[in-house]
Specification:
globular; binds 7N-methyl-8-hydroguanosine-5'-diphosphate
């Protein structure tokens, strides 16, 4: 017996930069699944996020949505992001697992329409966890999603997460895009 998800999700892996390949060509579609059991089968057989090479990502996105600003479902959207120093270790792996479970379990998104996917970026000296949304102007709903994300990460009150629009990231890069909201 399988426990179905509300919708199918796809796991993507962003390979570290490779000479001759554009950024979009580094995104590898790994597998699509639509049950809780399939999710655990995948989770138990891939490397932990904290052990990924620098400049690689994992993303879980709705089936049919690529983890890219250019995708039609993302181009008017944005992301809530939590960024922290270091490689994260077990604490990161636990935060990433709860982030993924809340996305595929649909508990981050009361509308069922906003959350397109979740991403973990492993970078030199830091990591970033993000929830990508379809819109970037729907303040009330986006703040609700941000508060839920912060709560499931179990962050101390002194930490903040920040919302930025993809159109700003695409102009200045994720690290320098201006923050439109924070919680
Ligand atoms: P990042 O991985 O969002 O954050 O963007 P980082 O700066 O902390 O590493 C790094 C770079 O990857 C960007 O400046 C872009 O060159 C490229 N990049 C990232 N994303 C998410 C996209 C995307 O969706 N589309 C394209 N074309 N490039 C991207």
């Amino acid at each position: 017996l399988k426990h179905p998800l509300a919708r199918p999700w796809t796991l993507w892996f962003l390979m570290p930069p490779t000479p001759g390949l554009e950024w979009n060509e580094l995104q590898k579609n790994i597998i699509t699944f639509n049950s809780v059991e399939e999710f655990w089968g995948i989770h138990n057989n891939i490397n932990a996020a904290s052990s990924l090479p620098i400049k690689s990502d994992y993303s879980f996105f709705r089936e049919g949505v690529r983890p890219e600003w250019e995708d039609i479902h993302n181009k008017n959207g944005g992301k809530w992001a939590f960024q922290n120093k270091g490689r994260g270790g077990n604490a990161l792996d636990e935060m990433w697992l709860t982030t993924v479970l809340s996305a595929i379990g649909e508990t981050l998104d009361p509308t069922g329409e906003e959350v397109m996917g979740v991403v973990v970026n492993m970078r030199k000296g830091f990591y970033r966890l993000a929830v990508w949304t379809k819109t970037c102007t729907n303040r009330e709903i986006l703040l609700d999603i941000g508060n839920r994300f912060k709560q499931i990460l179990n962050l101390p009150r002194t930490e903040t997460i920040e919302f930025s629009a993809h159109e700003d990231s695409s102009k200045s890069g994720s690290t320098r895009a201006k923050t439109r909201m924070s919680v």
